[in-house]
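Notes, p. 3: input format for complexes.
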Amino acid sequence: MRHIISVLVENESGVLSRVAGLFSARGFNIESLTVAPVGDEETSRITLVSIGEDHIIEQILKQLNKLIPVLHVADLTDGPHVERELMLVKVTAEQSQRAEILRIADIFRSRVVDATPSTFTIEVTGDSGKLDACLSLLIPLGVTEMVRTGQVALSRGDKGLVKS
Amino acid sequence: MELTGAKIVIQSLLDLGVETVFGYPGGAVLYIYDEIYKEKKLTHILTRHEQGALHAADGFSRVTGEVGVAIVTSGPGATNAVTGLATAYMDSIPLVCITGQVPVPLIGNDAFQEADIVGITRSCTKHNFLVKDVKDLARIIREAFHIAKTGRPGPVLVDIPKDITIHKCEYVHTDSDVNIRSYKPNLKGHIGQIKRAITLLKASKRPMIYTGGGVVLSDAHKELFEFTSIMNAPITNTLMGLGAYPASDGRFVGMLGMHGTYEANMAVSHCDLLIAIGSRFDDRVTGKLEEFAPDAKIIHIDVDPTSISKNVNVDVPIVGDVKLVLEKINQLISTASFKKSKPDLSDWWEMVETWRKKDSLAYSQGESAIEAQYVIQTLCELTKGEAIVATDVGQHQMWAAQFYNFEKPRRWVTSGGLGTMGFGLPAALGAQVAKPNDKVVVITGDGSIQMNIQELATCLQYKLPVVIVILNNGFLGMVRQWQEFFYERRYAETDMMSHQPDFVKLAEAYNALGLRAKLPNEVEPVLKEALASDRCVIVDIHTRPEGNVYPMVPAGAALNDMILL
Ligand SMILES: Cc1cc2nc3c(=O)[nH]c(=O)nc-3n(C[C@H](O)[C@H](O)[C@H](O)COP(=O)(O)OP(=O)(O)OC[C@H]3O[C@@H](n4cnc5c(N)ncnc54)[C@H](O)[C@@H]3O)c2cc1C
Ligand SMILES: Cc1ncc(C[n+]2csc(CCOP(=O)(O)OP(=O)(O)O)c2C)c(N)n1
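Output follows (729 residues plus thiamine diphosphate):
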């Protein structure tokens, strides 16, 4: 099963390689990883997506917790949560296709963020299913380049990651 | 007081109670060594190789329970330390290794003797640090010791660039506890889980205790003895757990696993409750996972949550320190009501005794070729099971585990998890430094001893009367045994006979005592002479070349599927 794991870490050099190294050294699967400071200057939040059986995911959570600079680990898939990903897609936009591309962009509530006589660059946000769906419609029209951020997620409700 | 970084290193070590360090100097640690030169309160043992320094610090730690300390230079000094770190990491031994590094402005420039040792050792240390500011140095050293020795112990590396060792800052001695907000090991054990365990303990008709290195690391042998007495259950130790329970006690059924006794493996395979204490279900222990303890509920006490339900699913996990958890359990099972409701175990003991009668370690000593088992049995008798025994890796290691009957913990120094040949001699010298009044013996093979033989010079320099017993079978015996059993006796590159050094002459070259035995009746006199010597001794004992370790569970087979002699 697919799991979204949130990891709060001390903002120190080498943390990311400790986390990434753990996955490669132990052969854990990693679908996506995002990381950024969360604003207090001391901590960063890593969001990981991994696919694995329950006992593997349990090991992943325990092993992450065992890393010294890791403050907190949670499997967001355990409860209700919101997940978002951002994608930028550059599509070839010949005259005959321009209207069609804009229609697709509209259906997915995405925005055109750059346009040239021969291309559109479209920004889409949503869960990964939505991004996949949008992409599958754009590919036949000619996608020249694209990039995705990987999942970020938060649990729903008033509870946060860190118990105070 | 303003001190240089180098002085802060030394002062921090002293303030942390360190009296002995093992190491090897070089350019990046020159300032640190200059302070070592000036500081008479700190003893520095100069090994002849950085790997030796790490294993020596490791041996020192295993026999004392203290954090072992090693200092090495940057680049090749640091990379030479890696095997020592990995060895300690696999066996959860607390070490602090200080490495020199090129000056901060040069890091990343492929500078002379630069190695990214923090990157290299990330997966074989419990944690590592690169010091980038002298103001962080004292705190980092204290944190390194704290991390090394608390929770599940392990090696920690502190990489110190050379310029940091000349920069100055204020140093204040502090006795306050280290507080790392992201690192708080759970030691106490959840009372709800402990109560669930008690319910199982109370009901079990065929309980089996399986303990490991965690009992030694937690210094919980007394609590274990009490627990085992109240339970009156058979007990087995892993290779790492030997000595935590007295081998002479009737409840002890020997080691389990690949080269464990018949009775230990059968008892694990037939028990209805397995109580795992500070042991980690290693594949050398479990054999085929699906058939491991098939009828048993499992209780597992371990301080590291990742050890629990990693290989074998556990019914009652108790995360905590063995000593604290056993104290609590003992308190709860010491009651009259527990003892009254506990089932009678005489049928279970009858089964165990039947298995024990098989005498799976039996061998016969003839008149011509020396059997390795006989050598170790004799050594055990001559030292009354009280020597500190270090080993290398191979058949000799397994025979030592099977035939040296340890009565006390922290006397068995062996590389179990990584299985590092070359560990024995340097680890023994570290143990001898820690315990100058104890007899320290290395049991080794003719292959392994050649992997860190240079440490003889260290033994000589510091007058360490280590007794090195080479069980010389002329082969890389353990590998040869596998080739005999599973590769139709194709002895690929395992024959060491033809170009073997003369070990007696080698001893003499180092000004050690060299002795030799080629016949069974020479074994006892030669060992006696070696043990009586106050010098370092090599005893070269020519054993039967194709002797095998029995019993053996082939890799991947079930535990009760043993090859017996
Ligand atoms: C050639 C060869 C053959 C081998 N054959 C065998 C064999 O037949 N049988 C065998 O048993 N081994 C054998 N081994 C050793 C094997 O590879 C493992 O090293 C060993 O089985 C592990 O022992 P352990 O389970 O006690 O764990 P250790 O490695 O000693 O780990 C200790 C465990 O205790 C926990 N712990 C540490 N401190 C505490 C504390 N304070 N409180 C609570 N828990 C704590 C740790 O988290 C860890 O889970 C062999 C090795 C070699 C090289
Ligand atoms: C550094 C290292 N290299 C290789 C091995 C693989 N290995 C395990 S046992 C063994 C043979 C050891 O031979 P020896 O020291 O003579 O001991 P014996 O088995 O003959 O008692 C080898 C090569 C190892 N454990 N460690």
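The two ends of chain A are 30 Å apart (CA to CA).
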